[in-house]
Design brief:
The chain is an alpha+beta fold. 29% of the residues lie in helices and 23% in strands.
């Protein structure tokens, strides 16, 4: 059992890169949102992206 998270990366050229994850734990929404943000940050680091602007519908995170 776990929750899912989805993100869409937008390049400066307007290209879209949608990703979704199945998280391996079931926890409070704020924990899930923060875990999703950490996953994205690791992913873009691995992609060699140096700048990242985050937008979220969760005020606690951003």
């Amino acid at each position: 059992v776990g929750l899912g998270a989805g993100v869409v990366l937008y390049s400066p050229l307007g290209e879209l890169y949608p990703f979704s994850y199945k998280l391996k734990f079931d926890n409070a929404n704020n924990t899930v949102e923060s875990e999703a943000l950490l996953l994205v940050m690791d992913m873009v680091k691995d992609m060699g992206i140096k700048k990242l602007r985050c937008q979220s519908d969760v005020e606690v995170i951003v």
